[in-house]
Amino acid sequence: MSQAATTEQPVGTPEPVLSVGDLAISYTSRGRRTAAVQGVAFSVGPGETVALVGESGSGKTTTAHAIVGLLPGSAHRDAGAIVLGETDIAGWSQRRLATIRGRHVGFVPQDPGVALNPVQRIGVQVAEPLRIHGLAGRAEADARALEILAQAGLDDPEAVALRYPHELSGGQRQRVLIGIALACDPQLIIADEPTSALDVTVQKVVLDHLQERTREAGASVLLITHDLGVAADRADRIIVMQGGRIVEEGPAARVLEAPEHEYTRRLVAAAPSLQSRRLSATPGTRLPEALSDAVVLELAGIARRYVSRAGGRTREVVAAHDVNLSVRAGRTTALVGASGSGKTTVARIASRLVEPDAGRVLLGGRDITTATGADLRELRRGLQLVYQDPFGSLDPRMRILDTVAAPLRAYRVGDRASRARTAAGLLERVQLPADLHRRLPAELSGGQRQRVAIARALALNPKVLILDEPVSALDVSVQEQLLQLLTDLQAELGLGYLFITHDLAVVRQIADEVAVMNRGEVVEAGTVADLFEHPHDPYTVELLAAIPGRGIASSAATG
Amino acid sequence: MSTLTATVRAAGPAPTEAPTASPLLGARLRRTLTRPGGISLILAVAVLVVVAAFALAPGLFSTFDPTATAPAQRLQPPSGLHLFGTDQLGRDLFSRVVHGAGRTMFAVGLAVAIGVVFGSLVGLVSGFVGGRLDAVLMRLVDVMLAIPGLLLAMAVIAALGFGITNVAIAVGIASVASFARLLRADVMRVRRTPYVEAAFAGGERTGWVILRHVLPNAWGPVASLITLELGQAVLAVAALSFLGYGVVPPDPEWGSLISEGRAYLATSWWLTMLPGFVVVAVVLSANRISQAIQRRDGVIR
C-alpha cells in the first residue's frame, strides 16, 4: 500500500478494517456507575493511520481497550458494535477474542517498562504469538523471531533474543513490542500512547519505526495519544475525544489548522509542541516597581560522579562534568536533556540535596556549597523545590492547608492562626478554591496537586525556585495553565526559575535562557531564540528535530 | 480480589472525585454485613467487645463470686444456673472466666504495648538511620526471631521471676523483634519518598519529619500486626499461666483455669474445654480483625 493511496483514502470506505458503532462503556465503582465512553463511532480504513486524541479521562484508552477486549472487570459495554473486517466481535467471549488478538489485531502498550515478562528471554516472547496462533512450529517460530528482531532494527538479533527485558533500553523494548504486535501480520495495530514513556529523541525513532513497519506490512494503525504534535506528524485522520464523546473528526491537517470545535481549538492552542512563543504575564498582574535581573543562583564548575557496582564490576557514571549555569531574578533558565543526561543531578546539587565532587553553588552571591546545619536551613529559605511527580511529593496523610503551612511552621514564622492565613493566601494565589483546604492529596487532580506543591514552595518567599519537570506528568491543557501560573508568579514576585525539562517545546514557552545537557555535560547554552534558530551542537539539532508537530507549527505561524 | 478492585479504582478516570464522607453507622454496618466475610468480621468484633466488657466490669456478668467454694456443688456439668459448670471446689466456672478476663487482658495489653513501643522504636531508628546501625540492630532482631517466642518468654521469666506482670513483660519482649522488622521495612520505603525529601528541602527538622510524615505513613501494617499479636499474646499468656508462671491461686486466669481443669479432663471435660474455647474465640477474632485491617490498607494503597 503506497503512501498516496493511504492519504487519499476517503472517510468511511466500503470495507474499513475496523468500524466502531455507537459504543458506550461505563465503569462501576462502589456501586456507582460512571459513563466513560458514549456514542463513539468511527472507522479505520485499510492502510490508514487514525489518531485518537484526548486528555486523560477522555475515554480514548477505554475505547482502545474495548476493541481488543482488554477492559478491566469493573467496566461494562452498554451498547455498540465493534466490527473487525466483517465480523462483529463486540459480544465475544475472552476465549474467542484470544483467537484474534495478536493474529488480526496487534497491540502496542503504553509502558514498555512493564509490558514484557521480566523472567522470560526476548526471543521466546517474540516467538510466542506465532506459536499460540499456530502459525509456526517451535523451530520455525524461533527463526521468525530472529527475523522480526532484525526488522525491528535491533543490532545483533541473536544476542538480543537471548537477553532479558531489563537488559534492553526503553526504546529497544518498545521496538520489541512493536515487533511482537506485527509478528502475525495483523490488519490493524492499536498503539496506546506508544512513546509517552520515552525520551523525545527515542520517541521520534520509535514512531518512525512504527510508521515504516506498518506501511511495509500494509497494516492500519489506531494511534492513541495525548500529544497533538505526534498526531499531526503521524496520522492521516484525527479523532478528538472529550469526556467520553467524539467532538471532532477529520483529516489531520484540517483539524489542526482549522479546528471547528471549541475544545479542539483549546487543545491546539495549549499543545506545547505547536507553540512558538514565550508566555507573558496575564494582563493586570501586579508588577513590582524595580525589576532587577541580578544573578540569584549560580553554579560554577559542578562535577559529580557515581560509582555503581553491578554484577561484580564497578562502573563509573559521570552525572555532571564542569557544569556552569546562572539564574537571574525574574528570569527562567531551562536545563534540557534526555533521561540520564544528568540534569536532575544538577538540580539536586543546586538544592543541596546531593553533594558535588567539585564546583560551587552560589545563592545570591554567597557560596552555599559547604553550608551545613543551621546555616543550610537558613539558606534553604531562599531556594525551594517543586518536584516532577505531584502524586509523590505531597504527604498522602496531610491536609492541603497543613502541607502548605509546613515550611512556615518549620521556620517558626508567626503563630498557628497566622500561618493558616498565610497558607490560605498562598493557595488563593495558585488559584485553588478554599473548599480544598481540608482535602487530602488523593482527593485532588494532578494539576491541583502541582499547584499545592508550588504554593508550598512559595511559602517562605524564596528567591529561586528549582522546578524539576513540573509539568511533564500533566495533561496539555493543565500544563499550559500551570506554565501561565508560573509565568505570572515570576513577574509578580521577581522569582528566578531553574526549570528542568526534557521537552524543548515547553522551553520555548517558559524560558529565557537554556542549557542543553548530554551525558553530564552542557553541550550548548544561550538564549532561547538563539538556540532554536541557530543550534550549533549536533545533539541540540537532533533534539529540535524530535519535537513533534513542527510542520504544523510553522504553517500555523505563517497562516 | 480486593487488590484487583484497588488497581481498577486507581486507574479509574476521575481522580478529582472526592470519596463520599463517612456514612452513618447503620449504613456502614449494613454494607459490612452484605460483603463476603462481613458476618464473621462483625462476630469477631462482638467477641472482643464482650471480652473487653468482662475485663472492665466483671461484676455485671458473673452470677457468683469467682472464689467462693461450695463443696456440695462440685464438678457440676454446664446448666442454666452454672453456664460453664463448676470446678472441683464447686466454684462457678463462668464467673471465673469472666473475672479471669481482666487479668488475661491486662497481661495481653501490657505485652502488646511493650512490643509496639520498643519494636517501633527499634524499627524506626533502624529504618530511618540505616547504614551500620541498621545492620547491627537487624542482626539482633534476627537472633531474637531465631528463638521461638515462647522459649524466649520463658527465659525472660526465669530471669524476672514469676507473676502475671512478668509474664506480660516476657511475652512483650518476645514480640519486639517482629514489630521492629515490620516497621523498619515501611520506614525505609517512606524515607525515600519525594514528600519526605520535600519536607527536608522545606527546612523541616528531622524529628518533626519522622513524627509528622514518616510514622503516620509507615504505621499501617503495624496496626494490623497489633491485632494479630493480640491473639498471639492471649495464647502466650495463657500458655505461660498454664505452665504455672502466672497468677497465684485462687485468682482466676484463663491459662491457669485450663491447667487446673486438666486433672479432671476424663470426667469433667468442661473445665478445660470451655475456657479453652474462650481463648480460641478471642484468638480467632483478633486474627479476623487483623486480616480486615490488612485488606483495608491494601485498598487504600
TrEMBL record, chain A:
Annotated CDD domains: ABC_NikE_OppD_transporters (cd03257)
Record keyword Nucleotide-binding present: yes
Record-level GO BP terms: peptide transport; transmembrane transport
Keywords (A to Z) from UniProt: ATP-binding, Nucleotide-binding, Transport
Gene Ontology MF annotations: ATP binding; ATP hydrolysis activity
Keyword Membrane assigned: no
All residue ranges annotated as the ABC transporter domain in the record: 18-268, 297-544
Family affiliation: Belongs to the ABC transporter superfamily.
The protein, known as: ABC transporter ATP-binding protein
Organism: Propioniciclava flava
From TrEMBL, chain B:
Alphabetical list of InterPro entries matching this protein: BP-dependent_transpt_permease, MetI-like, MetI-like_sf
GO cellular component terms attached to this protein's record: plasma membrane
Main location: membrane
GO biological process, one term: transmembrane transport
Keywords: Cell membrane, Membrane, Transmembrane, Transmembrane helix, Transport
Residue ranges crossing the lipid bilayer per the database entry: 38-61, 105-129, 136-158, 164-183, 222-248, 268-286
Top-level taxon in the UniProt lineage: Bacteria
Gene3D superfamilies from the UniProt entry: MetI-like (1.10.3720.10)
Localization terms from the record: Cell membrane
Record CDD domains: TM_PBP2
ABC transmembrane type-1 domain mapped to chain residues: 101-290
Family assignment from sequence similarity: Belongs to the binding-protein-dependent transport system permease family.
Name under which the protein is recorded: Peptide ABC transporter permease
